């Protein structure tokens, strides 16, 4: 009976841990200045959409994962040609996680320009 109880507790803890890890990829919506990580910031080796969000005087930089929504936004919205001091205002919906100390957002919807 003692072993059965121990197994049940381990099972519950394992399921709880899995749910906690899944919460890391919650859907978020951000609005901010879109620029190219290579051309405007000089931080990436290849062109990459980057959105800088300023809230309450603090800046957060989101590096957007390359997927189906990447190319249309990068060239079509002018993110690649935007300057650091004059970014394109964009809205992005996606899932966010931290990788190698950076916030990485994977868009789940079309990236849109905000006027």
Q: Can you characterise this structure?
A:
- There is one protein chain.
- This protein has helices at residues 2-22, 70-76; strands at 27-36, 49-55, 58-64, 88-99, 102-107, 112-113.
- The protein is an alpha+beta fold and 115 residues long.
- It has a single domain, classed as OB fold (Dihydrolipoamide Acetyltransferase, E2P).
- The chain has a 5-stranded mixed beta barrel with strand order 1-2-3-5-4.
- A hairpin with a 2-residue loop joins β2 (49-55) and β3 (58-64).
- It is globular, with a radius of gyration of 19 Å.
- The N and C termini lie far apart (65 Å).
- Residues 4-23 have low confidence and may be disordered.
Set out the fold topology.
Blueprint lengths: L1 H21 L4 E10 L12 E7 L2 E7 L5 H7 L11 E12 L2 E6 L4 E2 L2
Parallel strand pairs: 3-5
Antiparallel strand pairs: 1-2, 1-4, 2-3, 4-5, 4-6
> Low-confidence segments, ≥5 residues, pLDDT <50?
4-23
CATH topology: OB fold (Dihydrolipoamide Acetyltransferase, E2P)
| Count of the separate structural domains | 1
Q: What level of helicity do the residues show?
A: 10-25%
Global outline: globular
Q: What kind of assembly state do the chains in view correspond to?
A: single chain
Strand content: 35-45%
Helix- and strand-based class? alpha+beta
Secondary-structure element order, N to C: HEEEHEEE
What is the CATH level 1 assignment? Mainly Beta
The gyration radius over C-alpha positions equals 19 Å
So how many helices? 2
Number of strands: 6
Whole-number mean pLDDT: 83
Q: In the CATH hierarchy, what is the architecture at level 2?
A: Beta Barrel
Straight-line N-to-C gap: 65 Å
